[in-house]
Amino acid sequence: MMNDAHDLTIPTDRLRTLSSELRAQSPQWADRLEQATTEQDLRNLVCDLFNLSHALPSQKESSNETHTLSGRITRFINENLHRGLTLKVLANFLGYSEKYCSDLFYRIMGESFSGYMRRHRVERAQSLLTTTAQTLAEVATAVGFSDQFAFSHFFKRATGRSPREIRSRLTVHAMQKAL
C-alpha cells in the first residue's frame, strides 16, 4: 500500500501534545508549531526543527539532559570561540529565545554567559600565551577578538597583567630553568 504524503493528517490532540512536549524544551519552537496553519507552514517548521535536532535531547538522553546540554554548550563554545560568540548566537544554535537561553545557561553552567565567556577567553588566552609562539594578534583572533589592542585591554582588565607580561614572564622563567 502506497501512502501519499498529502494524505498524511495529524490529529489536533496529537499536535497539542507535541506542542506541550516541545514547550518544555523550547517555548519559541512550540509557539511556531501552534501558529502553523498550512501544510507548508508545518513542513517548514519540521525542516527547521530537523536542522536543529542536535539541540534537543532524545528520550533516552532526557534523564541526563542537563549533562548532555552542558556538553553541547561547552563543545559549541570551544569550537566557535574564535568567532566572537554572543548570547544571541548561542540562543540561535539552541533554538531558544535569548532570555530563556540566558536563564538556562545560568542554571546549567552555574554562571552567567558573559562571566563564563570572560573566564573561558582568559583561560584559553593564558594557555596560548604560555604554550605557543603565536603572536598577540593570533591569540586575540583565537579567543574571538578582531584586534590585539581590544584583546590586550580585555586581558589586562581581567587578569591585572598584560598579555606581553605573561609572555615575558614565561620567557624569563624558561631562561632561568635553562641555567
From TrEMBL:
Keywords assigned by UniProt, alphabetized: DNA-binding, Transcription, Transcription regulation
Span of domain HTH araC/xylS-type: 71-169
Pfam families assigned to the protein according to its UniProt record, in alphabetical order: HTH_18
Taxonomic superkingdom: Bacteria
Alphabetical list of InterPro entries matching this protein: Homeodomain-like_sf, HTH_AraC, HTH_AraC-typ_CS, Tscrpt_reg_AraC-type_HTH
GO MF annotation terms: DNA-binding transcription factor activity; sequence-specific DNA binding
Protein name, per record: HTH araC/xylS-type domain-containing protein
Protein source organism: Nitrospira defluvii
